[in-house]
Structure formats: C-alpha cells, structure tokens
Amino acid sequence: MISRVAGNCFWLNRYMERVGGMARLLRVNRAFVPGVDLPHLHRWHPLVVVAGEEERYRRHFGEDENGETVQEYLTWDRRNTTSVVESVRWARENSRTAREIVSSEMWETVNSLWHWLQGGPGRRLYRSDRDHFYQHIREMCELFHGQADETMLNGEPLAFMRLGRYLERAGQTARLMDVHFHTFPDEGEIDDPIRLAQWSALLACCSATEPFQKRSFGTPTAREVVSFLLFEQDLPRSVSHCLRAARHSLVHVRGYGSNRIGMVSTALLEALLSHVALREGHPIVGNELHGELTYLVDSVTDLCTSIEQEFFHSTELQTQILAEQSIAAAQQ
Amino acid sequence: MPAELEQTVGLAGDTTLLDGYAPLPRTYDELFRSDGSSREEVADLVAELDQLGRLEFMTRQRLAEGALFRGGVTFSVYSDAKGQEKIFPFDLIPRVIPGKDWVNIERGLIQRVTALNMFLTDLYDGQRILKEGRIPESMVFGTAGYLKELHGIRPREGVFVNIAGIDLIRGADGEFLVLEDNLRTPSGVSYVLENRGVMKRVFPGVFRRSRVRTVESYPARLGDALMSVSPRDPGESRVVVLTPGSYNSAYFEHSFLARQMGCDLVQGSDLFVHNERVYVKTTAGPQQVDVIYRRIDDDFLDPKVFREDSALGVPGLIGAYAAGNVTLANAPGNGVADNKAVYPFVPDMIRFYLDEEPILGQVQTHICMRPDECQYVLENLGSLVVKAVDGCGGYGMLFGPRATRSEIDEFATKIRETPEGYIAQPVVELSTCPTWAEGEAAPRRVDLRPFVLTGKTSWVLPGGLTRVALKAGSYVVNSSQGGGSKDTWVLEAPES
Which end of chain B is more exposed for a tag (fewer CB within 10 A), N or C? Predict the structure, then answer.
C-alpha cells in the first residue's frame, strides 16, 4: 500500500488509543484523589508529567495545579497536542485522508465523536456529569477498535492499524505506571496503604482490576501489581502483551513487502521483547522502576520513529532500493 | 388536528408537483413550452413527476439529502479547523435531454475536443495555425496559459486533453451553445454519479420507465482511456490519481474516482523521480507509475520547472514526462487552449484542422484587445457580460444589466488599462428548468457540463453535470456562489 496511507492507518489508531487512554486516566484520577490525603501538588500534576506536557503547561498556567485547570488542559486545550480534543481532531484528519481505506463504520465513529466534542452536547456533559463524559469517550474508543477488527479486511491496512494501536498502548501503560513515581517521588514503604490505593487506581486505568483479582488472592502488594501490568501476557493492556501483539502485526506487514523495509524496526522490537523477557520474574520497585519505565517509553518512541522512517517516510530508502536493483540488473 | 395544519397537509396532498408552473418569458424551458404545456419528447416523464404531488416530493427530497450527507458527498469549506462540510445542494427534478438532441451534442463535443487536441499538438510543435495567420500570435502568447518549457513535447497518442468538461448553455431559441472549455482539471463528475445513485433510490419507478441512459460506466471508461495512453504495456501499467491533498475542496471527488477506478490516490510527496522515471513509495518498496491522472494545477506540478515553492508537486516530474516515461492526464500546458482569449477562435480551429463546419455554436465574443471591438464594448457595458480572460468560477466578471453605475465605471477603467485582459459577450438568456424552491416548482436557470474522455478514441458521458442557479432570477450557477446541481437524464434515442 501507499506508504503515506499506511501512516494514516497507523496514526489513526494511535490517536484513538491515546484518546481512550487519556479519558481513562482522567476518570480514574478523579476517583482516586478525593479518597487520599496527598499534598496538593501530587494530586493532578503527575498527569501533566506523564502526558509529556510539563513545560508547556507551566508556560501557560505557572504553578496552578488546580484539578479543574489540569482537566481542562488535558481535555480541551487546543495548545496541548495530546489533549483529548486534539487527538480526536488528528484521528479524524487521518481517517478523512484515508477514506478509501478506512471502513465507513470507523469513519462514522470518529466523525461523530468529533462532532460531539465540537458541538454543545460534549461540553454540556463535561459540566454536568464529568465521569459520564470520560466514560462516553472511552466507550467510543472501544467501539472504534472493535469496529477495526470487525469491519476491516484482514490485510495490510488493518495490520498497520493494530501496530499503531498496540505500540501506543504499550507506551501508555508504561507512562501510566510512572504516575506512581511522580505522585510519590520520595522513597518510602512500598506497601503503604496510600501507595497501594494508587496502584489499585492504576489497575483500574488499565481495565485490569477484575483480571488482577482473578490471578491474585488476598491483599495485593505493589510488586504483584507492577509485575501484572508489565508482564502478564494474558492482560490486553500489559506491556508484554502489547509488544507481542505489535510483533505479530509487524511480521504481518512485512509479509506483504520488500525484505529491505522494516529491518531496523524489527530488530528494535525484538531487542525490546528480549529485554522485557529478561526482566520477567524480577522484582522492580522504586527508582529502579522509574528507570525501567523510562527505558520502555523511550524504546517504544524510538521504535515508532523507526517505523515512521522505514515505512511511511522512506524516500531515501526507496531510492536506495532502486539503485541496488539497477546495479543488480547491470550485473546479470 | 389544528385547522391550519390540516389545511396545509390537504393542500400539499392535493397539489400536483408542477401545478401552475409558468416558464419565464423569452426564455427556453427544458421541460415546458411557452404556453405552459410540456414538451412532447418529455411529456410522459413530466406527467409521472407531476403525479407525485408536493408532499411526496418533499419527503423524497429529504431522503435524498440525508443519503448524500451520510455518504459524505460533500465539499469542504475548510477555512477553519472546525472542518465544516456541506452537501452540494441537489435538486430532485431532473433535467431531461431527448435522445435526438443528444446525438448532435455528442458529435459536436467530439469534433470540438478533436480540434482542440490538434491545436495543442500544433501549438507546442510547428505552430502552423499561427504561421498561416488563422489566430493572431498575441492572443496565444499574451495569456498565461502557454508554457514555453514544454515546447516540442508531444504526449502519448498526441492527446493533450484526456478529460474535457465543456460547458454548454441554451439560449432563448433552444440551441445549445458552448460557453467555456475546461481542458485542465475539470471537476464535477463525482456529483453526476452520486446524484444518479440517489435518484435511482428515490424515484425507482419513474427512472425505470423513462429509458434513461446510464452514467455508471464513467470510472471504467476513464480507466480505459488512461490505460490506453500508458507508455508501458497496459498489463504492467500502474495508474494513480494525484490530489493536492485532503484540504482541497474537491478531495471527495479525487478519492471517489480513485476508489471507483480501483487505483491508488496519491499526493505529490508519495511520488518521486529516479532516472527520469516516476515511482510511488509503497510499504513494499518503490513501484513505477505510468499514468498520472493529476488534479493539481500546472504551476504546482514540478518545483524544478514551475513554481519553486510548490510542495504539492513532484521534483523532476516534467523531466520524466518529457522523456516519455510517464503520461500526465491532462497534459500540462492546456491552459492556452481553454482561456477566454482563445475561445473566440475555436470555430476557426475546427475549420482549419478538420475542414468541417462547427456542429455546436458558441457565444458571440468581443475581443477588447482589438480597438474597434473595445470601443463597442465600452459603449455598451450596460448590456454585456464582461469577463476577465484569466478569471473562472464566476469571479472577475461584470454582468452589465445588473451592475451599478460605479461597477460599470470600475470595469471601464480596467478595460482601458488592460484591454487584452478582457472579453465581452451579449447576455444569453440561459434556459430554465423546473426547480423546487420555497414549496413549489419554479423556473431556475441551468447550464450543462458534459464530460468527454479521450484515449485512442473519444467518448462522451451521456448527460453531465447540470448546474442550477438556485436564486430566483440569478444567472450564476457556480457552486461557490449559490448554485446547486440536478441529475441530467439523457433519454435513449427513439428506434427509427
């Protein structure tokens, strides 16, 4: 398929995954904050940090860490490239550009979510019933991903969509877990009740509360939660599961094409998978966990950049392939 | 039921669709004679439409609009990030052309496009027509359309105009006249096909009984025409549609045509040139491209040759085209044949190249570059239509009978300053067609853009885009200025 259009498929699903992730995070934090006694700064600020928006936020709002300001910024602010409304806008642009590829069902879902946010109904619900507002967004994202699997031909475009979805999700889960580090930057008792409350909240962010209960009996420990979110292959949002699903899609994609395209990305993904496999079973806590999560987030970012270069913006590589082909032809 | 509501329903139920329809005086109506009776060739069809009644008609109009909106048959008004999309207003009362009239139009269009292709071939080569003095050189080189960089390049099969949209109007006597040739990137055909789809859904019965010629083969015919001018064997050729991108107002059409032809829709950045061949970047590596149906303007095609700042084009594209390794449809440089300065000479071209008399007439044109004609124009501005030679879409034009004193003075100044920039034509009373307006059918002016495809031979889409001025009394049918569209029904010719 056309490289740029493959990029549209990849990004469409990344953006929709990002929208869903942000809506989950905001909703869960709303539930978490009132129940615990935390210094003001540690209530909403961590969300800005994991969104990668600390600098820009500070520029616009200074030290204002008011929950309303943060929610408004992460949901509605057009200056924030990761806000819900901006992500939906870019999802819509990508699907509009690739209308001949994206199924009508998916297009209609993205389009109606966009119009809902743009028009009155979304804003009204945000004011009157915020939890319901985030819930609706999350459900639309779930609908969207379900439609991708149910209405697309199982071919190359869908493989790029799934690749985008799972890589975004792997990064999201790692970032979400890092919220913990930013909420409790000081060393402390790892199984202290407030800290555990946040780990439970993070499980909820990953729709992992019930799955976790099915695998772990009694009072949970932080170690168990961390291990579950990182390594549990059967959990759809665990880092390990997402990377494996991404590998599946990448193999699928490469099956369509030239062996020359995707070599670097495959190598990066394999390296990341073996890194994760080596860590499995080892307790990772505190500062070490923060380091590990940073490594995961950076690696996924590098991988996405590589996919971008190899598959979507590949002029150099493509010219190189032609040059090699003509040399080979001349030699024969 | 409240009394007034009951009455409304009763009225609508009782009134036939075209009841009381009165054609405008001194104006040709597509369906009715001046005495108010329907034209013989379309009488059966008019009777069927009439019997629907207004209430039923309104129901179907709503159905049609819903279908177009859901299907995303929109053009975007994309000046802001809100991404507003509107449907191109569509009127359900069809414009009907009897089969025997169409035969003549078809022949006339093919004749005209053939002559225009010969003109372009000649102009970019030996320029015989200029040397023999049939067209003054100043008319050709004085305008922006001629691209000297392309002199000496002959496209495949000598076809410069693969896709033409020739705008026709109908004067008070009912004769079809050519108003304008569009030989660069004429648009609108996707609306023809979408409108037809909707009409068949909302008027299945009327449609079936009327023996209307089909338009659905257009994308396949377009594909055939493009493939037939490929530099490589059709079996191994790749055709793409080149769009300026999703912010272009015609993006829907570009996407539609690519989807219907089953080829890729690409942007300039998807293509690159290597050793004078064009390739498209795919996830499976570079694939050679043989035919590009390009929907971006000449100026933007190749930053190496034309506008350096063009981010829409492909560096080296013109080089590949000159080397004969890729077909561009339409060929670059066609603007010299469809501008308003050259238009008055098309009948002469037909005589010169084909040794035939033009089958289709055209509107009498005064060329302001000629001093005596300019004088006439300046003295009669109040009754003429003045057009800028490089204007389009109804902009840059003066409609004398409706203009204010100051508008006329403004144009007089402009014409005196740059007479070569203007032409003038008498007002043609555009024909009307019954059109739904404020609860009843009323006469509204229409034009017609048929599409002519040329590969090794030419083919005319039976029908075309009928544009209608939705405002009462208006002569401007452009979609950017309050125009809408109608389905065009060409009836099968009676068996003789």
Answer: C
